[in-house]
Amino acid sequence: MNNAKLFVIDYRLHGEPKSFIIRLEKLDNLEAWHWASCDAGIGRIGRFAREQVKKTSREHAEKFGLSGVQWRRSDARAQA
């Protein structure tokens, strides 16, 4: 992961605010919802790097109380 960047993902689980940092090459809304669901204990992370795991959808995550997923780059340059 030469081009890996740090991202901050904020979300709410049953109304309680949560936040974490993740290192990925790229991030979009689908990936953010999946990783937020993994952090909340809803989604599944593969055992091996090459294992294909079905991503947790927004609709599925919302059934378990996940909401308000937002993400941003962690460095100040990306926000300027």
Shape assignment: globular
Which H/E pattern describes the elements?
EEHHEH
The main β sheet shows up as: 3 strands, antiparallel
Number of domains: 1
The parts where pLDDT drops under 50 for at least 5 residues are none
Number of strand segments: 3
Task: Give the structural class.
Answer: alpha+beta
Q: Write down the Rg.
A: 13 Å
Task: Provide the residue-averaged pLDDT.
Answer: 89
Instruction: Please give the share of residues in helix.
Output: 25-40%
For the biggest β-sheet, the strand order reads 2-1-3
Structure write-up:
The protein is an alpha+beta fold and 80 residues long. The protein has one domain (5-79). 26% of the residues lie in helices and 32% in strands. The chain has a three-stranded antiparallel β-sheet. A hairpin with a 2-residue loop joins β1 and β2 (16-24). The two termini are 24 Å apart.
Structure described in brief:
Helices cover 26% and strands 32% of the residues. With 80 residues, the protein is α+β, with helices and mostly antiparallel strands.
List the helices and strands and how they pair.
Layout: E1 5-13, E2 16-24, H1 29-39, H2 58-63, E3 66-73, H3 76-79
Antiparallel strand pairs: 1-2, 1-3
Features:
80 residues, alpha+beta, three-stranded antiparallel β-sheet, globular
